[in-house]
Records
---
Amino acid sequence: MTQSAADALEQIKSVSPALARYRSDTIVENLWKNDILTARDRSLVTVAAMIQRGQPIELAYQIGLALDNGVTAAEVSETIAHLSFYSGWGNGTNAVDVAAQIFADRGIDPDQLADANEDLMPLDEPAEANRIAAVEGLVGPAFSRLADLTTQVLFRDLWLRPALSPRDRSLVTMTALITANLPAQIVFHINKAMDNGMTQGQVAEVITHLAFYAGWPNAMNAANVAKDVFAKRET
Amino acid sequence: MTQSAADALEQIKSVSPALARYRSDTIVENLWKNDILTARDRSLVTVAAMIQRGQPIELAYQIGLALDNGVTAAEVSETIAHLSFYSGWGNGTNAVDVAAQIFADRGIDPDQLADANEDLMPLDEPAEANRIAAVEGLVGPAFSRLADLTTQVLFRDLWLRPALSPRDRSLVTMTALITANLPAQIVFHINKAMDNGMTQGQVAEVITHLAFYAGWPNAMNAANVAKDVFAKRET
Amino acid sequence: MTQSAADALEQIKSVSPALARYRSDTIVENLWKNDILTARDRSLVTVAAMIQRGQPIELAYQIGLALDNGVTAAEVSETIAHLSFYSGWGNGTNAVDVAAQIFADRGIDPDQLADANEDLMPLDEPAEANRIAAVEGLVGPAFSRLADLTTQVLFRDLWLRPALSPRDRSLVTMTALITANLPAQIVFHINKAMDNGMTQGQVAEVITHLAFYAGWPNAMNAANVAKDVFAKRET
């Protein structure tokens, strides 16, 4: 069963009164109330970070909060499917186990989720041609099977499912990569997020939010990478 | 208790019908049936990735599948011992907790496992001399104690235990390093795996398999590193 | 409930007799008995590594051992608060859940913990000015909010709390960064640990200890980074 916010706070207080203060004053009353990002966006980011980290206690709490903040069950569901590829299958399995309980508790049934086979959105052919060329350059002909799976499964299927908007897919992908500290991929996906409509200020705030949920060093590394992306896009 | 495959699939379907489709169509019917790697090798790789990730639900399922796919209990046991050093002791403890239950359920008793002290295989002295020189260059004299432990515990004991073949030790080590995204060590251990008999095609397929279990970005990074290793070995 | 050391050893033996041998001979009788670091320091390091890794079984065992080795409950508590920022909030939540049970079992109540608001230690203004300049150079003006939070929450509050000495904060921070393989931050925090009184030999032994608890590859990477820090400080 998911802990209530009050019970969680009491438990934190029993181990570290200071940590309970940081939670109330710094995180709940300050970070989450800053409107550079909506509460819905902060919830998507936090859920994605917890999926990447495989942290079931905090993930359960954050999925509940996300549903309260306007992330739909279908979007939680599709975020788990999406990150099963970016964070690894075992992180997906962990998140399924947590979400299944919450969906059962809240009476969320499969009617509210996207079909296994949705009508796909149209492909942006020129961007996709660039992406394929970049992957082929990166991995070379010995990995043609990996490159093909990337194209068929990720970019001609998963990313085109309307169950999560391209902007939100970018948001959760970028989050997972920052949380896992993968600088090469962070560059690609910050650019994709901004191509999909996120502003520089929003990207910076995602990274600031993640200082708390992915740990300070990962946020500092991502900020350093983002600084260069921002500079390149401005010229 | 370990979830059955059917129960696991039902649970996934209750959270994401799309993810259940990917599991059945892309992973079970396509990835695992490709014969570039045997099912036994895929199981060793997947178990190693889940040990590195510390994901108990998926690990329990994968250890069961590995035993069904011809990995012996002694090999599962020795993989856990081996990765306790490469992935860290806590990952070993996690895996012990998961495996103890499965061994008990299947009536696997200590007779079927390798002794604590086995007769060791002979050491490849010239390769070992090169390895020692490389480590000393890497860490310098302030770390002579770490270098000595590396030699005594890992290379004059663990790696020489016949309970897991050198080729299989390479396979699970390479997997752990790809899953943890450690490029410097990936280079050394891809080379060692190929010296121990793995082909370029098999190494590429290990990385492709790990796209699913270690997450796509880690596979892309490893493919980029492997591309250069392959090129160097060909010249 | 926390496993006893004897039960843990029996469970390890049931899965891998070799791993039980390494635990007894290499880790308990050799590593932990080496007096380059005190048992108290080794416990702080091991607890910090397990918090960073989010490994509840081993963390429970290690928190109990730390309390037996002279780490106070207040120091365990403050280590969890500190690493909630460096390792990420979900790692903090995990550790709170584990520690709450141990504190309850041992009758440790909030009187024994530091207040949420302690009188802070004085700030080292010149060192702080250097740190701020370094952060601003790293992240640039788009991340002024992140830089401000770093200053206000971490360096003008958390680090100045007397509940954990600066030297011990450095020890657990350095440990978390080595365990997470974050080379850029390892450089800064090895220097800070040595400024806070740790010797070169002690830093080298922390890394050697972490070969076991954070995995061999992370220790080798950290040793390589530390080698250069040591060389720079000597000139």
---
Amino acid sequence: MAVAAEQTTQSLPTYADVEAAAKRLAGFAVETPLIENPELNARVRGRVLIKAETLQRTGSFKFRGAFNRISQIPESERARGVLAYSSGNHAQGVAAACGLLDIPATIIMPADAPQAKLDNTRAYGAKVVTYDRYREAREDMAAALLRESGATLVRPYDDPGIIAGQGTCGMELARQAEAQAAKLDVALICCGGGGLSAGCALALDALSPETAVYAVEPDDFDDTGRSLRSGIRESNAGEARSICDALVAPSPGELTFAINRRLLAGGLTVSDDEVRFAMAYAFRRLKLVVEPGGAVCLAALLAGKLTARDKTIALTFSGGNVDPARMAEALAAYPDPR
Amino acid sequence: MAVAAEQTTQSLPTYADVEAAAKRLAGFAVETPLIENPELNARVRGRVLIKAETLQRTGSFKFRGAFNRISQIPESERARGVLAYSSGNHAQGVAAACGLLDIPATIIMPADAPQAKLDNTRAYGAKVVTYDRYREAREDMAAALLRESGATLVRPYDDPGIIAGQGTCGMELARQAEAQAAKLDVALICCGGGGLSAGCALALDALSPETAVYAVEPDDFDDTGRSLRSGIRESNAGEARSICDALVAPSPGELTFAINRRLLAGGLTVSDDEVRFAMAYAFRRLKLVVEPGGAVCLAALLAGKLTARDKTIALTFSGGNVDPARMAEALAAYPDPR
């Protein structure tokens, strides 16, 4: 199903915007490590570099975009606050950014979001309003709240400031790979609405133009992959379900897709079981906690969705905000993943 | 209870041996990241840098010492193999090092060692012989096996090559801290037999002499702390128990204590519950998997066993080889650690 063509009303961010975002984030965001594991390299017979955004402030890359966007709200508008809707990682990013900038935040979150994400968002000082992910439209709720408060809406991905902020992850990735004498053949980026892919693609296009960048999505939420093939923005079926709560966006963003269409090499998909295997592998072999949506790139690699042999592949671990029960399920399903 | 004074039969390693070990380890060991988390900093009102040896090959620092020691076995003796006894992390280090150097390995391990450690040691290709930790003396079993095979015994900590290898962790730590513009006031090192403490103390004494280095031990296994106070090697009570399976050595090593006595500022201790809290904090806030024995330094910090305010503190996460049930227990006990 294709989304009706819309006029792009905002100008697309460029790599210069990513560089400006990096300056704003300095001292606030973590320069997360690019992690290499000899046993993973041996397993895939290539070289794998993991950009561990699980170790970012708030446990996901989303802080980058949120802080970059929110720090640009004019002083005169800050007292009216910020409003956001999010499955949980953008929520925490916005809440933490608002906390640092002393701006009131209200976040609309699905009632079935992971408890860790709900707890953390509240702990950062935001007001949380919950809704039913499958029955209520969060955009309508947001519109009503905005009319009341006059707050600034901070979208989760379809915003130039958000995309530029996420791009700082790709900028660091490219520079760290270079410092580790790695020439990246491929970069795998976790993809929901496409903000991280678009931002990283901008940075990699500037700093490592020979790297093929792929969006990795859950089966049945492969809207970006299908859109890249058809050339127009495709939607996911309403009845689709995935354990990757962070990646269940309905369709590519207008701005994100305009960038991704130009810069991505393609899309890959993974099943829930492939994601569970990757989560168990990350816990047991890499000693890293990764949430389902953050594990899709490793899942694609371990499931052989691309040829890794003799290649250098960077991949994102986009977030680590997972409930223990979800992790326990993966560990029980795969007691000795190798 | 004090251990009878022994003549030191081997010369003590120096920082030059640590530097030589670093050359041997290049390309085999991982330069593990020094991780900083803004929320942890805010919590303790200081600056905390975590040396994540959980991300080392085999999931613990033990690979460093094992590879350094085993790579120095003369060619003519390699075919007779290597023998080691270990609660599990040294076992994996020895097994992995022997695998890389194509040397047969036999490891004596407690039957109640974490399943992850038993599985991994076998997966690296070693032959595992189990014993009852509380009824059998592993040293006697080792002596019998050595008589049969003529293998080289690789001790877990009381060996100059092992200590020098572990010291490369401290060498990296000092250099990475400097690169991150951190002047270390304190370094907290996980302590069982004292090999990591001794090696890191050698490196820090050379590279960061104003840093106060503390050994951190489980309650009732505070042999190094008590020995530092009395000046002679003290033992732990035979009935002592701890969830920190990696740190239940009976007394300080002869060589390790000779170094630690000279270079350590003191010892700190933590309870099993303080360790569980730290494991849950690491999983939920830092997104790192750490085993009980690897979490003692964070436990000491979070429990306020030292003053962190306005200080820069490095601490080791020495290993991450934990069974999921043990992690689940910690996560259930502390559902929202902050």
